[in-house]
């Protein structure tokens, strides 16, 4: 069958050139004798896309023939970033393209810079989905990603006078060469209306008569694996007006209004919600959730029915992964389809549904768990509310048999919360139905068992698992740090680590080797130069390459404690100001880099950004300080900027108050790039310590178990002198905007919920230890090498293998290797 299928398209530089020029002429519609960088990028991307399409066709045909159990990864957010470099690297044709382009007078890197980010997500959860897609493709798993094709991705952050402003991300304005619109893959999605009981073939059944119909149309995005021909698909849904409904309106003669109301359908997938904690009670958000769930489930069932007729086999062929609670209406939707449309008996349907789902939770605190007001759900999805009540009824009855009439516990575990506003607890629904409930780091998984879902853990201990997060070394080393990539392959004597990252431990034996150390420092320098150039171009601030590049980039949150970082910087500034010249000569120079977006309505986070700018303004213009200290805020931090920032960092900070970061994945990317961590013992840092040893990073702060007691002590506890002094400088207006910043200072000197004041001393000690280590380049470089060497466990390849084996029950399905290429 595959005799003809070893690829129509050739990948030698001449063939690539021809293809690029073909696309210049006929796709971009510019003359092949005259086109600019952006047009060249577009043509290049289209030629890569052709190769991706060919491979994804082959992959799908192969899956179809083998009919393995497939996993469907449901996520409302995917933070993909750019695709060009990642694709050509995974296809194994980066060098051929570079050569083809250079003969045409273009440079690959320059064209790659033309691409905008696909930012269909907020933060950690969304980037994790993207890394996991790369691993699923690379490890040959028969997987699909499903999500929403937002017209506007995450807002662009623009800073004016130190204040964050949000601007729309028009990412589709210049077209998206990677996606393919599947005009024939569309499904109707119903909303509102009523539920009628009807008799069908002598049996009672529920019929949902919707009040609104919207069509979901599929856009396919190919995800190529590395070192394999397998290319899987991320299918994103967009809203489109439904012809069915509109015909009625047109027939009644209301031409204009019928056309205007068609526009509404597109609103559903129009914009990504920019909050990375949770949304409670937003109708559009709920619509988005159901829209994407309903279309995905219809698609999955259609594919199943193409090859099977008996739903008993459904769980043998389908695994459904819920990325947090956002897609958990899928549980109810599958129930609805099986009972109302396929006419399965309720208990049989429930039995099937319970074998399908695994659920991963990314939240740490109960308030982060999603709840949907019953009124809202009942109006938008009347039949689903009934089904949830029925699921809950059966669950509570069963529970009473198991635990008796412990009403407190019953009400805590109930899917329906009977509070002032009656709500549906989506996390409880997911835990009740899913066969596995996963945490994202060891400490987080323990927290789920002992706090968040304690009652459920006692009932079903076997459901709870830990799937420590990971990131893909393809993007975070191979794409973003080519110099390190070359060095690693040279010293390990193989490129195999790109698929088998555990091989990085092989570096350990050379950690003291003078040659390796020399090359290692050179690589870091190259990356620091790239970052320094970016900083100067963006902010006009010139930074010294001899300084320690100290980075904290992530969403701005009180619990992530960017404020602690800034207070530390002020302290450093104050110390330098009070030194004489000889003392100053011993100071380790620093470039402090902070970046990240604040949710648009999160006032405290925005104040922290403003404070950062105010402090930077003062420090960077103080000639007493010079190169000893600089502070830069990198605006609009996103995936493609992370690819420049992370390789160039010497030190990175992960300062969450212990117990607040479920995992943290940024730290893993820094670790892979040989950046030393300064961190609290929270989330995945605890596991990083296990891998690289506490002596190779800078730990500080209260431990998880100490936090409650420290909070107990509350506002009365003493603010350390150094911290008080720093706060005094802010309060006294040293950095301007005196009134505006008072509340930030109050939060530290008052309740201090996030323990900035009580961790301050220990934070400064860790910073001093980092300075000391940096002053000894051999020691620092060794620590850096050992960081990379110990990062293997934090590859998403490991995470995905764990999921495949322990949660999804799927196996690799690799396109035959004789056709690899
Ligand atoms: C955790 N996002 C990190 C990361 O597991 C962890 C929530 C609601 C709506 C939209 N987005 C969200 C998150 O909850 C999120 O990004 N959580 C993060 O998930 C991956 O490493 O500790 O905070």
From TrEMBL:
Cofactor(s) needed for function: pyridoxal 5'-phosphate
Pfam family, one: Phosphorylase
Example GO biological process: glycogen catabolic process
InterPro entries with a match to the protein in the record: Glycg_phsphrylas (IPR011833), Glyco_trans_35 (IPR000811), Pyridoxal_P_attach_site (IPR035090)
One GO molecular-function entry: pyridoxal phosphate binding
Gene3D superfamilies found in the cross-reference section: Glycogen Phosphorylase B
Function: Allosteric enzyme that catalyzes the rate-limiting step in glycogen catabolism, the phosphorolytic cleavage of glycogen to produce glucose-1-phosphate, and plays a central role in maintaining cellular and organismal glucose homeostasis.
Record's protein name: Alpha-1,4 glucan phosphorylase
Highest classification ranks of the organism: Eukaryota, Viridiplantae, Streptophyta, Embryophyta, Tracheophyta
């Amino acid at each position: 069958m595959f005799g003809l299928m070893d690829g129509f398209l050739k990948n030698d530089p001449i063939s690539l050139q021809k293809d690029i020029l073909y696309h210049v002429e006929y796709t971009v519609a510019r003359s092949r004798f005259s086109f600019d960088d952006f047009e060249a990028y577009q043509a290049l991307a289209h030629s890569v896309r052709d190769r991706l399409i060919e491979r994804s066709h082959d992959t799908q045909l192969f899956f179809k023939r083998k009919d393995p159990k497939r996993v469907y990864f449901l996520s409302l957010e995917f933070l993909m970033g750019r695709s060009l470099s990642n694709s050509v690297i995974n296809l194994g044709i980066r060098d051929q393209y570079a050569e083809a382009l250079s003969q045409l007078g273009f440079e690959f890197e320059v064209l790659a810079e033309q691409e905008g980010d696909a930012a269909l997500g907020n933060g950690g959860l969304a980037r994790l989905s993207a890394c996991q897609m790369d691993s699923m493709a690379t490890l040959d798993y028969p997987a699909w990603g499903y999500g929403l094709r937002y017209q506007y991705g995450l807002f662009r952050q623009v800073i004016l006078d130190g204040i964050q402003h949000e601007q729309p991300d028009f990412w589709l304005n210049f077209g998206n060469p990677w996606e393919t619109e599947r005009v024939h893959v569309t499904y109707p999605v119903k909303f509102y209306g009523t539920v009628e009981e009807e008799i069908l073939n002598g049996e009672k059944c529920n019929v949902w008569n919707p009040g609104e119909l919207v069509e979901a149309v599929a856009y396919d995005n190919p995800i190529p694996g590395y070192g394999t021909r397998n290319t899987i698909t991320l299918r994103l849904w967009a809203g489109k007006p439904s012809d069915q409904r509109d015909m009625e309106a047109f027939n009644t003669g209301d031409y204009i209004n019928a056309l205007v109301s068609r526009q509404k359908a597109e609103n559903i997938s129009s914009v990504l919600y920019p909050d990375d904690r949770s949304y409670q009670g937003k109708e559009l958000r709920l619509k988005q959730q159901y829209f994407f769930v309903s279309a995905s489930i219809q698609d999955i069932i259609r594919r199943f029915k193409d090859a099977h007729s008996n739903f008993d086999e459904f769980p043998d062929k389908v695994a459904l992964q819920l990325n947090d609670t956002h897609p958990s209406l899928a549980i109810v939707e599958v129930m609805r389809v099986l009972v109302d449309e396929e006419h399965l008996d309720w208990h049989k349907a429930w039995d099937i549904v319970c074998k399908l789902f695994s659920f991963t939770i990314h939240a740490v605190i109960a308030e982060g768990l999603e709840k949907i007001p019953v009124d809202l759900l009942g109006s938008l999805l009347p039949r689903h509310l009934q089904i949830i009540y029925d699921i809950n009824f059966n669950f509570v009855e069963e529970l009473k048999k198991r635990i008796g009439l412990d009403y407190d516990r019953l009400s805590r575990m109930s899917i329906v919360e009977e509070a002032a506003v009656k709500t549906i607890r989506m996390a409880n629904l997911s835990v009740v139905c899913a066969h596995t409930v996963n945490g994202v780091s060891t400490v987080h998984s323990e927290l789920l068992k002992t706090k968040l879902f304690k009652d459920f853990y006692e009932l079903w201990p076997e459901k709870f698992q830990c799937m420590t997060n990971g990131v893909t070394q393809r993007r975070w080393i191979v794409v973003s740090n080519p110099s390190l990539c070359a060095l690693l392959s040279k010293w390990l004597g193989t490129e195999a680590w790109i698929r088998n990252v555990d091989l990085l431990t092989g570096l350990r034996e050379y950690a003291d080797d003078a040659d390796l150390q020399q090359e290692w420092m050179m690589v870091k320098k190259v990356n620091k130069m790239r970052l320094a150039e970016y900083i100067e171009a963006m902010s006009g601030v010139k930074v010294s390459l001899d300084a320690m590049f100290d980075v904290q980039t992530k969403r701005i949150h009180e619990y992530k404690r960017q404020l602690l970082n800034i207070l530390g910087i002020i302290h450093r500034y104050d110390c330098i100001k009070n030194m004489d010249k000889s003392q100053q000569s011993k100071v380790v120079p620093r470039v402090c880099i902070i970046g990240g977006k604040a949710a648009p309505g999160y006032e405290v986070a925005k104040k922290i950004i403003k404070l950062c700018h105010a402090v930077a303004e003062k420090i960077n213009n103080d000639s007493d300080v010079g190169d000893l200290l600089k502070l830069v805020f990198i605006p609009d931090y996103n995936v493609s900027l992370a690819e420049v920032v992370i390789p160039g960092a010497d030190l990175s900070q992960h300062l969450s108050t212990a117990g607040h970061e479920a995992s943290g994945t940024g730290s893993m990317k820094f670790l892979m790039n040989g950046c030393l961590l300064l961190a609290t013992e929270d989330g995945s840092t605890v596991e990083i310590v296990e891998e690289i040893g506490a002596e190779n990073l800078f730990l500080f702060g209260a431990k998880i178990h100490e936090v409650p007691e420290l909070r107990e002590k509350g506002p009365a506890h003493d603010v350390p002198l150094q911290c008080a002094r720093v706060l005094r400088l802010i309060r006294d207006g040293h950095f301007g905007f005196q009134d505006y910043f008072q509340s930030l200072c109050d939060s530290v000197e008052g309740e201090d919920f996030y323990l900035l004041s009580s961790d301050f001393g220990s934070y400064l000690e860790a910073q001093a230890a980092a300075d000391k280590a940096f002053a000894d380049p051999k020691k620092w470089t060794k620590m850096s090498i050992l960081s990379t060497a110990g990062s293997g466990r934090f590859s998403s390849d490991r995470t995905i293998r764990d999921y495949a084996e322990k949660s999804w029950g799927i196996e690799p399905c690799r396109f035959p290797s004789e056709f690899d290429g």
